UniProtKB/TrEMBL annotation:
Identification of the protein by name: dihydropyrimidinase
Subunit description: Homotetramer.
Taxonomic lineage from the root: Eukaryota, Metazoa, Ecdysozoa, Arthropoda, Hexapoda
Post-translational modification: Carbamylation allows a single lysine to coordinate two divalent metal cations.
Keywords noted in UniProt: Hydrolase, Metal-binding, Zinc
Domain called Amidohydrolase-related: residue spans: 66-452
GO molecular function terms listed in the Swiss-Prot or TrEMBL record: dihydropyrimidinase activity; metal ion binding
EC numbers on record: 3.5.2.2
A GO CC annotation given for this chain: cytosol
Domain of life: Eukaryota
One GO process term, biological-process aspect: pyrimidine nucleobase catabolic process
Cofactor(s) recorded in Swiss-Prot or TrEMBL: Zn(2+)
């Protein structure tokens, strides 16, 4: 259910500016404690039992429930102009869906057309987002071409506009070649920015696509055939190698395959500082869906790198998250309706790439990770919120429940279930890749900057309520060598999880 609320003046939004969450269990990435949370004017002011609080404070009873930091989705594409069309979730509907699912901050990617000023593109996105975002948001920049001017603008964006991350593509028409990647990574290191990479070998993808189309393979099943696992793994390895030459920590977005995850681990073993992100889509479904006879169904599952046909992939990637071989999750929400996906009805390479996930990421990961016994609730918090806050340098303001942190909180009921469906989701898109999945774990209340935006399951967001959050350079998590050590493989006694059918020993009941 949802109640759309149009923008109201800020002073009228906070009639309820004091909130006490009582009797719940607070889950942070490092511990679970039984404490109440008192929030005033959007900020967590007190933690503990028997708090002394002003009269007139709203009280929510969280007995039997978990009180967790709001999710941070570091990877969305709202209103993204891509492959000849534009993604249908805009900053209003996308962030509303995020909040409905328990995510209280998103970080979107500013697309920069070839030759366009990065700063102009940044302002275009700020304009798109500022009046629409229902929760706080940050921005990454896409570096789609290379020049001295790009390097200068990267520096201005970092010093004056709250940007600390740049994504470079190794595929698509706007991919950078190895020399350009070298220069872009080097620029990131000088600025203390996070170098992000879409790792697929674009030249091989083009050749394979031509070959497949010539053979008459035109349907969505051709998508993965054109970009198999080793094409992803080769690019991960190459990106890691280039980054290491210029001593730049690297963030690999959307690790989609076991081969790519292994390439990342191998790079780390030889000393490369690399952070790996995977997606709700990769954890919750698989590439067999792209062979479905219905075009809408199969095309709806097309994204890049592709969902893998190896059915053991989702569980394996979840185990990689448990073992810290991968560090965090995003959604890569980039949604296209049936008619847009039909741009590729006769040619899989023209199917706009992208899937949903911003709304369901938290539930899907709880279901496939915590409920299935692979993750404990603390690790769930780390991979859905805290690590993103650390990587993009907004921790401890975001990503944890602590005095002084923003009042971004989810009251999570692990004992309730919901069934995901396009009929009930809050996204603009007409399909849901998780359709029919029953998920344990329901966000009953979602508090965004102290305001209850999901109230007993009822969505009550305010368009434009979210703020742009500046992401400062030199995140300690990325740039401190001491922290980099923590990325190295650890043998926490869980290194046999890949073989264990159900990691029961890791299960911590909430
Ligand atoms: O298929 C995808 N992933 N679409 C969004 C663009 C990107 O590469 O992240
Ligand atoms: Zn990408
Ligand atoms: Zn169908
Ligand atoms: Zn993406």
């Amino acid at each position: 259910m949802s109640t759309p609320v149009k923008k109201v003046p800020i002073h009228l939004q906070s009639a309820q500016n004091r909130l006490l969450i009582k009797n719940g269990k607070i889950v942070n990435e490092d511990e679970i404690v039984e404490e109440d949370v008192y929030i005033e004017d959007g900020v967590i002011k007190q933690l503990g039992r028997n708090l002394i609080i002003p009269g007139g404070t709203r009280v929510i009873d969280a007995r039997g429930k978990l009180v967790i930091p709001g999710g941070i989705d570091p990877h969305t594409h709202f209103e993204f102009e891509f492959m000849g069309t534009k993604s249908v979730d805009d900053f209003y509907q996308g962030t509303k869906a995020a909040v409905a699912g328990g995510t209280t901050m998103i970080i979107d990617f500013v697309f920069v057309k070839k030759g366009e000023s990065l700063i102009d593109a940044y302002y275009t996105y700020r304009q798109k987002a500022d009046d629409k975002a229902c929760c706080d948001y940050g921005l990454h920049m896409i570096v789609s071409y290379w020049s001295d001017r790009v390097r200068e603008e990267m520096s201005i964006l970092c010093s004056e506009h709250g940007i600390n991350s740049f994504k470079m593509f190794m595929a698509y028409s706007f991919m950078l070649n190895d020399s350009e990647l070298y220069k872009a990574f080097e620029a990131c290191r000088k600025l203390g920015a996070v170098a992000m990479v879409h790792a697929e070998n674009g030249s091989i993808v083009s050749q394979n696509t031509e070959r497949l189309l010539a053979k008459g393979v035109t349907g969505p099943e051709g998508h993965e055939l054109s970009r198999p696992e080793e094409v992803e793994a080769e690019a991960v390895n190459r990106a890691c190698t280039i980054a290491n030459q210029v001593d730049t920590p690297l963030y690999v977005v959307h690790v989609m395959s076991k081969s790519a995850a292994s390439a990342l681990v191998q790079a780390r073993e030889r000393g490369v500082r690399v952070i790996g992100e995977t997606l709700a889509a990769a954890l919750g479904t698989d590439g067999s869906q792209c062979k479905h006879p219905c075009f809408q169904h199969s095309a709806a599952h097309v994204l890049s790198p592709p969902l893998r046909s190896d059915p053991s992939t989702p569980r394996s990637l979840m185990i990689s998250l448990a073992q810290n071989d991968l560090q965090l999750t995003g959604s890569d929400n980039c949604t296209f309706n049936k008619t847009q996906k039909e741009l590729g009805i006769n040619d899989f390479s023209k199917i706009p790439n992208g899937v949903n996930g911003v709304e369901d990421r938290m539930s899907v990961i709880w279901e496939k990770g915590v409920h299935s016994g692979i993750l404990d609730p603390c690790r769930f918090v780390a991979i859905t919120s805290t690590t993103a806050a650390k990587v993009f340098n907004v921790y401890p303001r975001k990503g944890c429940i602590a005095v002084g942190s923003d009042g971004d909180i989810v009251i999570w009921n692990p004992n309730r279930t919901r069934v995901i469906s396009a009929k009930t989701h809050h996204q603009a898109v007409d399909f849901n890749i998780f359709e029919g999945m029953e998920c344990h774990g329901v966000p009953e209340y979602v508090v965004v900057n102290g305001r209850v935006c999901v109230d007993e399951g009822l969505v009550k967001v305010v368009e434009g309520y979210g703020n742009f959050v500046k992401t400062p350079v030199f995140p300690p998590f990325v740039y401190d060598l001491e922290n980099a050590e923590k990325l190295r493989p650890s043998n926490n006694g869980i290194d046999d999880l890949h073989q264990t059918p159900k990691g029961e020993d890791r299960k911590v009941s909430p």
